[in-house]
């Protein structure tokens, strides 16, 4: 059970006002808010043991190294990776995807096929297009249906012995719809193709078990998990991480360097060139601790209540259309009202203290599918309330009156 009043006390930002109104924060799919425990972790790092890791003999460096490696183990446990060295700490989902896409550039040849879904964020499209341009690989797309689900029959027909890699999000950021990644992975593996799952949107709502899923790669960002920006993870099965070449060269990622020949460090350091976001990594672990203390079963149950309530209340508004109507969804409502531009609704909501996202949500192909310029997206978290949804609904009604 969630005690939302108590939880809200943990988030200082939820006490602030915007344009003189209490903040109603419904832009959680873009970035979640930060609990005091994570803020304290960041302050503690810079106040007490700020230093560079992995190479210092002095106490501060050892303390920072220990905390950073403890954070890696927290991430490993959270995602149930077999080994801690299968967790690469990166700058976030986009960085993680680029590491994999750049690595596959040397593993893929002309005529090989890679498959993407129609529901992707630009960061899970563009790096692969760049990879295809360099290699001559062919990009195939799993189409989507009107309700925001994937056309799985077509997917099954697309996979064949030429397929080398499938990349798909676990949950769509634009619609909140949940994709059948278990089925996607199983089918790809019948043809020995690797699967990379973009978990940026799923991880705030679902605790993924990468071994049970049998995902070859799984990526996510800390800033959607009550952690800071600029840090995330790349999980990769050991065999794949061994096969992929390093993404960046530099300090920390080497075993030996000479002008004749350089050899690379083992996992995970091979992919962690340079000084990482040390404080961010440690705070990532603190964000996961916080969410696990709330409990992902509790989070899923409570957010589902918010989704059901918000969907029913918003649909009472005449002319309001929700995109992504499949029942397999996380707590995201993407909508438009009649012909009103989503930006105009978002700007009025902001004046009422309500933060939503408007636009194409970095998923232009989805907007093209629906032939719309964008949507208004309200995304809920476990610290939101039904009262806040009521404020949103009356705000949308007011915006519609003003704009009609
Ligand atoms: N994929 C999805 C599904 C996302 O929602 C996002 C963030 N909106 C990203 C990738 C990119 O994440 P980041 O900006 O943290 O790198």
Q: How would you describe the overall organization of this protein?
A:
Its EC number is 2.8.1.7. Keywords: Lyase, Pyridoxal phosphate, Transferase. It is an enzyme of class 2 (transferase). It comes from Polaribacter irgensii 23-P. GO terms for molecular function: cysteine desulfurase activity; lyase activity; pyridoxal phosphate binding. The chain has helices at residues 4-9, 36-49, 59-79, 93-104, 126-135, 152-158, 181-190, 210-213, 238-243, 278-294, 296-315, 342-351, 364-370, 386-403; strands at residues 17-18, 21-22, 24-25, 87-90, 113-117, 138-142, 163-169, 194-198, 217-221, 232-236, 254-256, 263-264, 320-323, 332-337, 354-355, 357-359, 375-379. The two termini are 41 Å apart. It has two domains: 4-30 and 295-403, Aspartate Aminotransferase, domain 1, CATH 3.90.1150; 39-293, 3-Layer(aba) Sandwich (Aspartate Aminotransferase, domain 2), CATH 3.40.640. The chain has 404 residues and is of the alpha/beta class. The protein has a seven-stranded mixed beta sheet with strand order 4-10-9-8-7-5-6, with helices on both faces. Strands 13-14-17-16 form a four-stranded antiparallel beta sheet, with helices on one face. It is globular. α11 runs parallel beside α14 (386-403) and α12 (342-351) packs across α14. It is built from 14 helices and 17 strands. Helix content is 40%, strand content 17%. The chain binds 4'-deoxy-4'-aminopyridoxal-5'-phosphate.
């Amino acid at each position: 059970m969630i005690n939302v009043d108590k939880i809200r006390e943990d988030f200082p930002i939820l006490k602030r006002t915007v344009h003189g109104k209490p903040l109603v924060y419904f832009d959680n799919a873009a970035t979640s808010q930060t609990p005091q425990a994570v803020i304290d972790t960041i302050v503690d790092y810079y106040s007490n043991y700020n230093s560079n890791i992995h190479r210092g003999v002095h106490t501060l460096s050892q303390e920072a190294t220990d905390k950073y490696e403890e954070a890696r183990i927290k991430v490993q446990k959270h995602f149930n990776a077999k080994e801690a060295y299968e967790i690469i700490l990166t700058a976030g989902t986009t960085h993680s995807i680029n590491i994999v896409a750049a690595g596959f550039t040397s593993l893929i040849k002309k005529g090989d096929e890679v498959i993407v879904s129609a529901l992707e964020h630009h960061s899970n499209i563009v790096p692969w297009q760049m990879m295809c341009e360099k290699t001559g690989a062919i990009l195939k797309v799993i189409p989507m249906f009107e309700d925001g689900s994937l056309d799985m029959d077509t997917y099954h027909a697309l996979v064949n012995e030429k397929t080398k890699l499938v990349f798909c999000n676990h949950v769509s950021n634009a619609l909140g719809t949940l994709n059948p990644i278990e089925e996607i992975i199983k089918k790809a593996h019948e043809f020995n193709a690797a699967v990379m799952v973009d978990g940026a949107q799923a991880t705030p709502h679902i605790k993924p078990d990468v071994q049970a899923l049998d995902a070859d790669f799984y990526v996510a960002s800390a800033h959607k998990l009550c952690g800071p920006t600029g840090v995330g993870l790349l999980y990769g099965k050991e065999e794949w991480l061994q096969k992929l070449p390093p993404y960046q060269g530099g300090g920390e990622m080497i075993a030996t360097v000479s002008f004749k020949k350089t050899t690379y460090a083992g996992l995970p350091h091979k992919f962690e060139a340079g000084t990482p976001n040390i404080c961010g990594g440690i705070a990532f672990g603190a964000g996961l601790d916080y969410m696990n203390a709330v409990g992902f079963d509790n989070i899923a149950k409570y957010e589902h209540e918010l989704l059901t309530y918000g969907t029913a209340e918003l649909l009472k508004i005449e002319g309001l259309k929700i995109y992504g109507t499949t029942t397999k969804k996380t707590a995201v409502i993407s909508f438009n009202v009649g012909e009103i531009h989503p930006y105009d609704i978002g700007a009025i909501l902001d004046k009422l203290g309500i933060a939503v996202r408007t636009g194409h949500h970095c998923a232009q192909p989805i907007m093209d599918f629906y032939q719309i310029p964008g949507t208004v997206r309200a995304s809920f978290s476990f610290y939101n309330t039904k009262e806040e949804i009521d404020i949103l609904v009356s705000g949308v009604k007011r915006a519609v009156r003003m704009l009609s």
